[in-house]
Structure formats: C-alpha cells, structure tokens
C-alpha cells in the first residue's frame, strides 16, 4: 500500500488546526508541529485535529518533500516568527519546499526586526517572509479567510464555479500552481493575483480580506 500524501503545517493554533481538519477530510495527511514536543502535542491534536501527526519542527518539511506536494503551511503568529528556524524548511529534494504564508500583520503585535524592516519599506509582509525563508518558494494564501469560514465553505463536492473563491500570490509560477492544486483539493476555487507584490488586497484592511468572494471579484485585482 502506498504512503498517504502529506502536507506540513507549522503552528497548532486555531488556524493551523483548521487547515489540518479541512485537508484531513479530503484524504490529505497532515504533519503538524508547534513549540510543544510531539508527545505533548498529541493530546491537543486528538481534540482539535484528529488524524494529524505530531512531529518535531525539524521534521516538518521532510515527509511532504518525500511523499507529498512539497508544501508547508505557515500558521505561526508573526510576532512569534523568530521562533521558526529557517533550517526546518530546508530539504535536499529536487525542488525547494513551497511555503504557504497564511499569516497576517496586526497593529498590536511587536514584530521581529527582519519582518518589521520589510513593512518599513512599505512592502507586503510576505516579502519579509520570503527573505527570511529564502530556501523556499513563498506563496501568500489562506490568510484572508477566517478559520471559521475555512471549514464552513470548503466543499470539494461542489463544482469549481460554485465554490468560495480564494486568492493567492507568489513570484514562482510553479509554486503557485502547486498551491492552487492543493486549494482545489481542499474545496475552494483558487484565483492567482500574480506575484507577491500583488498580495496587498488580501492583507488585513485590504478589499479582499475576510470577505466571501467569487472568482470575478478577485480577478479585478489580479496583476
């Protein structure tokens, strides 16, 4: 029997476990890690993401590189991002990992200096993420839909044109394509905005943030 396809999730909070639940229900395996060791995390996952595998952070990229789409979803609050070691996302596979930046910048957070530097230059926050995790291909996605709506609207049984549309942005075409494939499997209609520079509309206070969307509404902001 072949091994189950696996996607990694960094962060076991409300967003990270919601991503896990949606993927698990369509048959995608999930490796999930947090600041807690796997043994301590297992009970939490039995309640909030039953079926997800608790792993050490430095293992999070290994299985998805070996037996998945090579995708890790970043669901750690930006104020805690210094605790994420870039080496966790280094693999020796033929392709770099794709890092889905599902994080947001909130005004009351004290950010790491490297991330604040990107914001001070008036850049989308994903530029700072891409610079920090330069060994990956960063795609901004899944940040502009709440964890409540994520589970409510993800429906892989619906025809594509009847699903909730979600936007994504990334500088690497192949990486965007891999994330679009994952979003389709999760039950959404993915719409590319273009490169990371086009991700502003899905940031907090942007016109596409936390809104029920159809494809045509997102396409107005595509670059």
TrEMBL record:
<feature type="domain" description="Pyrroline-5-carboxylate reductase catalytic N-terminal">
    <location>
        <begin position="7"/>
        <end position="104"/>
    </location>
</feature>
<protein>
    <recommendedName>
        <fullName>Pyrroline-5-carboxylate reductase catalytic N-terminal domain-containing protein</fullName>
    </recommendedName>
</protein>
<dbReference type="InterPro" id="IPR051267">
    <property type="entry name" value="STEAP_metalloreductase"/>
</dbReference>
<dbReference type="InterPro" id="IPR028939">
    <property type="entry name" value="P5C_Rdtase_cat_N"/>
</dbReference>
<keyword id="KW-0560">Oxidoreductase</keyword>
<dbReference type="GO" id="GO:0016491">
    <property type="term" value="F:oxidoreductase activity"/>
</dbReference>
<dbReference type="Pfam" id="PF03807">
    <property type="entry name" value="F420_oxidored"/>
</dbReference>
<dbReference type="InterPro" id="IPR036291">
    <property type="entry name" value="NAD(P)-bd_dom_sf"/>
</dbReference>
């Amino acid at each position: 029997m072949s091994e189950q396809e696996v996607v990694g999730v960094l962060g076991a909070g409300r967003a990270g476990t919601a991503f896990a639940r949606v993927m698990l229900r369509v048959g995608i395996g999930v490796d999930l890690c947090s600041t807690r060791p796997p043994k301590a995390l297992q009970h939490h996952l039995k309640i909030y993401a039953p079926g997800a595998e608790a792993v050490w952070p430095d293992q999070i990229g290994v299985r998805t590189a070996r037996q998945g789409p090579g995708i890790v979803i970043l669901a750690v609050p930006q104020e805690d991002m210094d605790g994420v070691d870039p080496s966790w996302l280094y693999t020796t596979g033929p392709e770099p990992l794709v890092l889905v930046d599902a994080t947001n910048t909130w005004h009351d957070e004290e950010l790491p200096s490297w991330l604040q530097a990107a914001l001070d230059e008036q850049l989308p926050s994903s530029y700072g993420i891409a610079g920090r995790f330069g060994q990956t291909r960063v795609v901004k996605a899944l940040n502009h839909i709440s964890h409540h709506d994520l589970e409510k609207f993800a429906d892989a049984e619906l025809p594509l044109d009847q699903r909730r549309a979600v936007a994504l942005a990334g500088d690497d075409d192949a990486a965007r394509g891999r994330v679009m494939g994952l979003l389709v499997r999760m039950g959404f209609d993915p719409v590319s905005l273009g490169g990371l520079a086009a991700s502003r509309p899905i940031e907090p206070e942007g016109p596409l943030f936390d809104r029920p969307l159809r494809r045509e509404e997102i396409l107005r902001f595509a670059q």
